[in-house]
Amino acid sequence: MIANTPEPPYYAVIFTSIKEEVTEGYAEMAEQMEALARQQPGFLGVESAREEIGITVSYWSSLDAIKQWKENAKHRIAQRLGYQEWYTSYRTRICLVEREYGIDAK
Amino acid sequence: MIANTPEPPYYAVIFTSIKEEVTEGYAEMAEQMEALARQQPGFLGVESAREEIGITVSYWSSLDAIKQWKENAKHRIAQRLGYQEWYTSYRTRICLVEREYGIDAK
């Protein structure tokens, strides 16, 4: 699903990652973390796809909302496991969304 | 490949799309457009993955570089075909990347 975000400005976190070949527990954790993110204050939406690399873009109302999510206790455990066990490499980019346009369906 | 972008600030264009089931000519055009984008002034990198939705994030040195790429004649033809033939829905978000962190490999 394309995230149904509000009028800008708002924030985006672009998380790009390359996984190890074997990633036990990863899929369940990813699913749990998405469900948990959706309950966070300031959460606006999320988009995700993986082929050679994985890209997850989550949208937030403020930098403070991103900070709170980053510091969420369960999310911190997931982050640590990700960096130690599952990801070969990753990059996180914190962005201010300035403009948005598109069509929702034909 | 995770894009090897410079120190922020720089810009990101997050392009999220859902394709029609049949998209004749799409793959060739996507490949051509990526090659063409890489030659544009101000191009910094691109990341792309598609499952249920497609996410392509391209990185640029300035808003002006994004504008020039948007107005590139060959790219305009591709955009028109995309909107008329290939995409059921899409969203383009123009973002200022404020912070970036990560690891490149273990």
Summarize it.
The structure is a homodimer of 106-residue chains. The first copy, chain A, is of the alpha+beta class and 106 residues long. Helix content of chain A is 34%, strand content 40%.
Helix content of chain A: 25-40%
How far apart, in Å, are the first and last alpha carbons of chain A? 15 Å
What kind of sheet is the major sheet of chain A?
4 strands, antiparallel
Mean pLDDT of chain A: 95
Q: Low-confidence segments of chain A, ≥5 residues, pLDDT <50? A: none
Q: Can you walk me through this structure?
A:
- Two copies of one chain form a homodimer.
- The first copy, chain A, has 106 residues and is an alpha+beta fold.
- In chain A, 34% of the residues lie in helices and 40% in strands.
- The first copy, chain A, has a single domain, classed as Alpha-Beta Plaits.
- Chain A is built from three helices and four strands; from the N terminus they run βαββααβ.
- Chain A has a four-stranded antiparallel beta sheet with strand order 2-3-1-4.
- In chain A, a hairpin with a 3-residue loop joins β2 and β3.
- The radius of gyration of chain A is 14 Å and the shape is globular.
- The model of chain A has no long low-confidence stretch (mean pLDDT 95).
- Chain A binds chain B through residues 1-3, 5, 8, 12, 14, 16-18, 47-55, 57, 83, 87-106, and chain B through 1-3, 5, 8, 12, 14, 16-18, 47-55, 57, 83, 87-106.
- β4 (87-103) of chain A pairs antiparallel with β4 (87-103) of chain B.
